[in-house]
C-alpha cells in the first residue's frame, strides 16, 4: 500500500513553482532545507524569512504520534471541536511495552496491562480518521520511514526523534502534543525560521565504521545544544554514499545535539529504499523533481556562503566512536577508549549489550551485527555479556527471521525483544543484583542520560554502532578495540573479529504477514470514545485558567535545579509511562529527578509553608491548595531531550507560574508557551546565583508583556533585602495571546466555537 499518493503528487506538481518563487525572493541559490521550508509556508511566501529571528507559519503534510504522547495530544484534540483530522495522521503503539523476558511474552503482557489505553487510542483514532498501528507493529520512526516519509515533505511528530525521516529527505520535526493539535485541526504551525548548519561529508566509510559514527562524531563537535534552533543539512559525495537507513540513523540522533531536524538530499540510495518498501510510484515522482530535492549546485560548491556554520568530515578517516557515559556528546574514538576507561575509572566490564531501537534496527544494521555474532560460533567464542536485540518494526523482524539472522543471534544467547522502544526509554525490567553497584552497559540507542535505560543512577550507559555493541557483547570489555585487539577462544587460541559485512537492503526483498496497521473508519461520527471517571490511566482534560490580567506576585521558589535538567528529570518515563493519559497522576513525578541546588538531592525541596523538606510534587500541591503560585529556576539547556509535553503540563497543572532558566531547549520552551506558562531566561546568567532558597518572588511587567520587552523578577530575601533581576523572553504576539488565554488550546476552542 502506498499512503498519501495524491498528497505527494500534488506537492511535487507545485514544487517547481514554489522553489522558483523562493529563489526569486532570496535572490540566490537555495539549500535543500530552504526549498522545503518555503514550499510549506502556510500561505504563499511573499517575503524572505530571517533565520533565527522570524516566526513562520508552516503547513506540514502529516502528523505522527506515539502511544505515550498520543494520549495527551488526542485528549486535547477531542476538545477542539473538529470532526476529523485535517491532515493525514497516525498513532503508533511502541512506548508502553516493557522489555522483561522476550518478544512474545512481553507483548502479550503489554496488551493485557495497557488494554484500556490501547482501546482508547484505537477508538479515538477511528473516530477522527487517524491511522492506528497496533502494539507490536514497530517503533514509530521506523514505521514512518517504511511507509510515510518521502523526499521534500514536511511532517511533525510527538516524539523528539521524529527527525529520523530526514533519512528520506523529509523535514521531520519533533513537537509537543499541542503543536500536533494545531496541525490536526488545520491551523498553521508556527516555528522560528531555523538557522542552517551544513555538514559536508567527503570520502566513503569502510570496515568497522558505520553511519552511527558520523553522528557520534558530530555530537562530540556540536555538543547537546550546538544544534539548537538549526536544521543540520548533510551534503557531499560522502552523504550520497550512505544508505537511506544509515542517513536515518544520523538524522534520528541529531535530536541529541538539539537540532530542529537533520536532512539529507534525495539520491539513488533513497530511491532504492522507496522501491524496496513498495513505493516505486513515489520514487518515480521524486525522480521527476530531483533537482528540487537537492541543494543547488552553487550551495555545494561554496557552502560557507549559504549556511550559518559548515563542518567537514572525511569518511575515509572516520573511525568508530563510543559516546558517554551520562551524556550523548562525550565522544571517544575507539582507538582512545581503553585509555579513557582507565583515566576516568569507568567500569570496564560490559554487563549488557543492547542493539536495535528506532536509531539502529534497519536490515543493514542487523545484517552487519549478525556477521559479527556469527563469528562467535565459527571462531570458538562466546558472549561475555547479556545481549538483546530490538527490531524496529514487524517488517524488519519478519524479514530478518526469514533470512536467518534471528537464529544467528539466538545461537550466541541473544534475546529478541518486542518491536518497541523498550530499554531505550526505560521500559526495561533489568535483572540487577545490586542496583547501587557501578556498572557499564553499551547500546546502539540514541540517548544515555543517567537513569535513562534502567532507572539506575549507577549505570554507565555508552552509545555505539550495533556492530561495535555486538563486538562488546562478545569481548565483555569496554576497553576492547575490535579493530586491533585479539580474543582468546575456547581452545586458548588468539583470534580476531573480522570486519562486519552486511546488506543495505534484503537480497530477497522485505516480507511481512501482518504489518499491524488498522485503517480508520471512513465515517467516525458514530464512534464513541469512553473514558471512565474512575480510571487511573486516562483523565479528560479541564481547560487551564486564563491569565488574571495582573503582574504575578508572592510566588515561592519551588526548586532551583542544578546542572543538567532534561525532560527525563522533569517528567520521568519508565514506570510513569502508564500515567501519560492522566495528568493529575503523572504530575506526581514532576521534577523528582532534578537536583536541588541547595542540598544536592533529588526530590527534596524546602516547603516554605512548613519549613520542612519534602518531595517536589507534594510541596507544590500544598502551595496550590493554599492558593500560592511557584517559580522553577533552572540551568543551561533546560528541558533538553524528549519532546514530552507532560514536562510542561505538569507544572502548569500544579500551579507553577513561571520557569526561569539560563537557556531552554527548543521543544520544551515551545511546550511551555503552548500551555500558558511563562518561559523566561536570565538576561544576565550570573543572576541565577542570586536566587535563594527562601525567596518570595514577584514577576513584574507582565501587564506590558510584548515582543522584546523585558520582565523583572523581584527576589524578596528572608533577611529583608531584595534583588531585581531582568528577564528575557522570546514570545511573539501570537504566543502572548496563548499566555493570556491560558493555553494555545483555549484559543483553538474559541476559534472553532465561533466558526
From TrEMBL:
Domain Aconitase/3-isopropylmalate dehydratase large subunit alpha/beta/alpha: 34-476
GO biological process terms, semicolon-separated: tricarboxylic acid cycle
Pathway as given in its UniProt record: Carbohydrate metabolism; tricarboxylic acid cycle; isocitrate from oxaloacetate: step 2/2
Any one GO MF annotation of this record: 4 iron, 4 sulfur cluster binding
CDD domains (alphabetical): AcnA_Mitochondrial
Cofactor list: [4Fe-4S] cluster
UniProt keywords, alphabetically: Iron, Iron-sulfur, Lyase, Metal-binding, Transit peptide, Tricarboxylic acid cycle
EC number(s) given by UniProt: 4.2.1.3
Record field: catalytic activity: citrate = D-threo-isocitrate
Entry GO terms, CC: cytosol
Pfam family, one: Aconitase
InterPro entries recorded: Acnase/IPM_dHydase_lsu_aba_1/3 (IPR015931), Acoase/IPM_deHydtase_lsu_aba (IPR001030), Aconitase/3IPM_dehydase_swvl (IPR015928), Aconitase/IPM_isomerase (IPR050926), Aconitase_4Fe-4S_BS (IPR018136), Aconitase_4Fe-4S_dom (IPR036008), Aconitase_dom2 (IPR015932), Aconitase_mito-like (IPR006248)
Record domain Aconitase A/isopropylmalate dehydratase small subunit swivel: where: 557-684
PANTHER family documented for this protein: ACONITATE HYDRATASE B, ACONITATE HYDRATASE, MITOCHONDRIAL
Family from the record: Belongs to the aconitase/IPM isomerase family.
UniProt-recorded name of the protein: Aconitate hydratase A
Organism: Flavisolibacter tropicus
